[in-house]
């Protein structure tokens, strides 16, 4: 029987711990806020921001939801970020990806000050994390690492194949797995012989954003399967889990695996930022 | 017959080009300087700094050699870097690794301003480079990439195995190869089945710093072999080239492969920094 890496359950446990820690801060007279910035009206982004706002409320963080119109310019968004950087009550800033196309999203992400980059999406934060320096990791890969650690999945000396090389998932996850002494292969759209590479992996991570792109018969028996994709219409992730669920050693369910960990990691990093600031 | 990736020859060509470009800057009344900082009396470091100084002179850059005593503190070194950051004539700053152990080397590297980080060793610069943003890459891997490009070695879709994960070589090289659409596996001291992984690679990069660590019979016929190691006492690199030289498709000689490219990449990035500043 495969072990279910139950992100939903573990996120609930983290939530309880964070609530206590926020209470301690509040009792000292602080009101730590997480600012979420949503630009435009993308329905999925709307949902994600709403979920993050609810999570804030549950752990006791002040949710500072900033909703800007779709026609917001890069300069206006940068100014909003500058104001939040300067606001001592705001201990974390999350800019919801994707911003409308006319916005220089990279410039905006990188404007978030390192200490408030609790979503871990600045280039500077990535570089520090990759080099083993103190920094918040990107929330999704950091959540995956927390889940692997919670279930005591061995990583050192294991062959991990990460399929996808996005700035918010594939690249940072590769660096995090490497830091835990996994041997990491980063695959992507130009990779040849993907099926064989997946077959050789002890740990397979789907991070491509294409429904059931990674086929069940590619995955070897006994592998650990992490699915960072979620496709609501198809009700599945990036990996065709059905065909291999019984013979893998552990897997993240979709939904209820990586998703809840992402949100709770954002919360955890916001709480850590607040604790550090008011230490 | 294997193609020799002649770094020495290509570096000489780059040098000629850089000399002309520096002349153009000088004719406009500028005197671009590269500052090299050496702390202590490590003989190898001494040699490297001297070689970089000579290269400056050859391309026409002002070589600002700063030699600090071994007992220099982190704070003193940071102050030196601050002064060089503020000096408009200095267009590049190179801190020779390794600094004496009592110095917080990471903090000192990261103090170098992004525009003068021509050796590409700041966390911030690494993060930007990894994310495809404008930044100077670390000199050794950037030199390797330039050499591969010069000899038109195909990278897209190829399987590259990088053995070593140092901040100045393995990690940045992995990101650079990935940007060129190679499928990249990062191996290290905890990797299991290294021989098999090397055997499966189209491109093998030795970046471990151990003489002939990578054995000739691990390397498959037709592979491209890049050796970033140089061990003067043993007169060899990280790869036992002798046993596979005839059957690989291309290789970097040791010496005369990666080494000259590292120094010339430092020069090239310093010239680019100067050109940008006075554009």
UniProtKB/TrEMBL annotation, chains A, B:
Pathway: One-carbon metabolism; tetrahydrofolate interconversion. Residues 139-276 form the Tetrahydrofolate dehydrogenase/cyclohydrolase NAD(P)-binding domain. NADP(+) binds at residues 164-166. One of its GO terms (biological process) is L-histidine biosynthetic process. It comes from the Bacteria. One of its GO terms (cellular component) is cytosol. The keyword Amino-acid biosynthesis applies. Its EC number is 1.5.1.5, 3.5.4.9. One of its GO terms (molecular function) is methylenetetrahydrofolate dehydrogenase (NADP+) activity. Residues 5-119 form the Tetrahydrofolate dehydrogenase/cyclohydrolase catalytic domain. Pfam families: THF_DHG_CYH (PF00763), THF_DHG_CYH_C (PF02882). Keywords: Amino-acid biosynthesis, Histidine biosynthesis, Hydrolase, Methionine biosynthesis, Multifunctional enzyme, NADP, One-carbon metabolism, Oxidoreductase, Purine biosynthesis. InterPro entries: Aminoacid_DH-like_N_sf (IPR046346), NAD(P)-bd_dom_sf (IPR036291), THF_DH/CycHdrlase (IPR000672), THF_DH/CycHdrlase_cat_dom (IPR020630), THF_DH/CycHdrlase_CS (IPR020867), THF_DH/CycHdrlase_NAD-bd_dom (IPR020631). It catalyses: (6R)-5,10-methylene-5,6,7,8-tetrahydrofolate + NADP(+) = (6R)-5,10-methenyltetrahydrofolate + NADPH; (6R)-5,10-methenyltetrahydrofolate + H2O = (6R)-10-formyltetrahydrofolate + H(+). Belongs to the tetrahydrofolate dehydrogenase/cyclohydrolase family. Catalyzes the oxidation of 5,10-methylenetetrahydrofolate to 5,10-methenyltetrahydrofolate and then the hydrolysis of 5,10-methenyltetrahydrofolate to 10-formyltetrahydrofolate. Homodimer. This is Bifunctional protein FolD. It comes from Chitinivibrio alkaliphilus ACht1.
């Amino acid at each position: 029987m495969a072990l279910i890496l139950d992100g939903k359950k573990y996120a609930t446990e983290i939530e309880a711990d964070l609530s206590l820690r926020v209470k301690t801060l509040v009792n000292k007279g602080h009101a730590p806020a997480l600012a979420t910035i949503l630009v435009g009206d993308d329905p999925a982004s709307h949902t994600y921001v709403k979920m993050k706002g609810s999570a804030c409320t549950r752990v006791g963080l002040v949710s500072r939801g900033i909703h800007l119109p779709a026609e917001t310019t890069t300069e206006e968004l940068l100014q909003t970020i500058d104001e939040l950087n300067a606001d001592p009550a705001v201990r974390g800033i999350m800019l919801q990806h994707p911003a409308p196309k006319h916005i220089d999203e990279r410039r905006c992400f990188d404007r978030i000050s390192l200490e408030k980059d609790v979503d871990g999406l600045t280039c500077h934060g990535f570089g520090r994390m990759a080099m083993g320096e103190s920094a918040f990791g990107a929330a999704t890969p950091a959540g995956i690492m927390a889940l692997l650690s919670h279930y005591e999945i061995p990583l050192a000396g294991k062959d991990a194949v990460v399929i996808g090389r996005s700035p918010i998932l594939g690249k940072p996850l590769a660096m995090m797995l490497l830091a835990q002494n996994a041997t990491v292969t980063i695959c992507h759209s130009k990779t040849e012989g993907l099926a064989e590479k997946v077959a050789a992996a002890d740990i397979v991570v789907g991070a491509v954003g294409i429904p059931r792109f990674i086929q069940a018969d590619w995955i070897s028996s006994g592998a650990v399967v992490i699915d960072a994709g979620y496709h609501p219409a198809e009700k599945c992730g990036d990996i065709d889990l059905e065909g291999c669920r019984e013979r893998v050693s552990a897997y993240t369910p979709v939904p209820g695996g990586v998703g809840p960990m992402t949100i709770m990691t954002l919360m955890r990093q916001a709480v850590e930022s607040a604790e550090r600031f008011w230490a």
